[in-house]
Amino acid sequence: MPELPEVETYRRFLNEVILHQAIVALEVRDAHVLGTPEDVLRENLVGRQVTATRRIGKNCFLELSSGQVLALHFGMSGDVGAYRHDHDAPRFTRVALHLADGLRVAFIDPRKFGRIRLTESVAHYQQAKKLGPDALDVTATQLQQRLSPKKTILKPLLLDQSITAGLGNWIVDEVLFQAKIHPERRANTLVTAEFEALHAAIQLVLTTAISHEATYRHFPASFLIHARGWDESATPGTEKHLFCPKHSKTKIAKSYVGGRATYVCPRCQPEPVKSE
Ligand SMILES: [Zn+2]
């Protein structure tokens, strides 16, 4: 699933190929991914330019010269691409914007859970979709203000896009590991230093993931993500990736928290003491 790091990578790509170029045609190959009727989209896109790109959490925005905004959500399997000739269109291209210089920008989505829709502004979309501040912009103080009144466990709160937008399942596990906080701690038990550690870990994990363009096998060996077994290439032919990068004899434990697969180091992230 495209998470914040993937969507930021897509945004940077779009920013490079699409900015300040007239859109000369809208090609819809599968209307299933449209959240706005095709004729309305065409009317608002053709003849216009993209003046800026933005992102909040997993949502990417193309600001149009008309003042309106095209909002892209990538669902389970969305991606972007560019091509020049019809026969070079990437497989599963659902929609393409044809630009004045001949380039075509593809919205690719094999599983079709992604959506393209027109919205009046980024702020309007953010409010309508109840999105909190982007995870890369949120400050330690904001995190503390939003989380410390909550008596529930931390991990589902961090996944809640209305508290902070853009933290997905593996990212939350990595953040909590780097911050040395157990996912089942109650939010109201965290002290200021822990909110600061949480904030620093969010920055570390997201900037690392973006700098590697979300290619997990290139992530540092100090990351927990390798224990998920999505790739073996960090430590080929060994089981090293199943152990804590800081405690080579402690195996990373897998459990389910709020119904989501969760990985922790039992030594780095001590379980909360049951006080009641
Ligand atoms: Zn550890």
From TrEMBL:
SMART domains in the cross-refs: Fapy_DNA_glyco, H2TH
Record keywords: DNA damage, DNA repair, DNA-binding, Glycosidase, Hydrolase, Lyase, Multifunctional enzyme
Domain Formamidopyrimidine-DNA glycosylase catalytic: 2-114
Catalytic reactions on record: Hydrolysis of DNA containing ring-opened 7-methylguanine residues, releasing 2,6-diamino-4-hydroxy-5-(N-methyl)formamidopyrimidine; 2'-deoxyribonucleotide-(2'-deoxyribose 5'-phosphate)-2'-deoxyribonucleotide-DNA = a 3'-end 2'-deoxyribonucleotide-(2,3-dehydro-2,3-deoxyribose 5'-phosphate)-DNA + a 5'-end 5'-phospho-2'-deoxyribonucleoside-DNA + H(+)
Signal peptide (residue range): none
Pfam short name (any one): H2TH
Gene Ontology MF term list: class I DNA-(apurinic or apyrimidinic site) endonuclease activity; damaged DNA binding; oxidized purine nucleobase lesion DNA N-glycosylase activity; zinc ion binding
GO biological process: base-excision repair
Residues forming coiled coils: none
Domain of life assignment: Bacteria
Family indicated by similarity: Belongs to the FPG family.
PANTHER family (UniProt xref): FORMAMIDOPYRIMIDINE-DNA GLYCOSYLASE
Subunit record text: Monomer.
Record's protein name: DNA-(Apurinic or apyrimidinic site) lyase
